[in-house]
Amino acid sequence: MITIKSINEINNIKRSVVTIGNFDGIHKGHEVLIKKAVEYGKKNNIKSIVFTFENHPANYFRSNSIRNIISNEERINRLNKLGVDLVISIPFNKYMTKISAQDFVEKILVDKLGVEKIIVGDDFTFARNKEGNTDLLKNLSERYKYSLEVIKAIKINGTRISSTYIRNLVSQGDVYAVDEYLGYNYQLEGKVIHCKQLGRTIGFPTANIEVDKDVLIPKNGIYATRINIEGQIYFGATNIGFNPTVNGSKLSIETNILQFNEDIYGKLIKIEFLERIRDEKKFSSLDELKNQLKRDTNYVFEKYICKSEEFMIK
Hey, what domains does the chain have and what are their CATH numbers? Predict the structure, then answer.
């Protein structure tokens, strides 16, 4: 798969099928569009293209108004796994706010990408002031000789799958429900960093990670998690919060990895959120905190290790 990060890098592609969107999370609804593009491209021997943006358009107008479900790097990785030929991931900038919908179609999709088929969702809008929509794409299709396929909203349990809905679930801490709409567990990836190491002093050493500042962090609390360390799978209890018992002032993401005792400082690890166990709480003493941590880790051990022999840590 080839990734292009600037309109100017596009070398006048002759024939393509293009799907357009922000595709944050590459959720189950996104996958329908992308897989259709890939299948059409293979069947007709033309390039399948995903046209997207590095930054969420809403953040161009209001900085940090939306946090991403996944990082740009992870989004590219997932598109690659879906078999896309070419990803155009460009900055949403002033040029994109000024270009008219017709110019977007003519100068980018037709002239630069040689589009033969466009696949979008039924709520798709684009270009200056969102003036472009599926009706306009249909009206221009005869002039520019492309076909248009509009995909109706994909629903689960009557709820439309959308990045906005998934962000709301994550923000509420409902990570258990996320998998049904996203298609995989919500996850954070980051490098293990040095912190106060308080957990180690009370018998619960934790791996603290530093994550992409643009990625959405679940609601504060204690979570059952699955941890990927260089391809090896472990389970643990992850705390997101401020450690109120010791008057912490900085948000931390720290995981007590069960059946694991290795030095992983500086290593990149991935944490998958399985369920939210409880709220973060300020305890009256370190002993009370320690007893609660025992209950948290016992819960994870009994539910996810003892009952999941395929993931049993040897």
Answer: 2-160 (3.40.50.620), 185-311 (2.40.30.30)
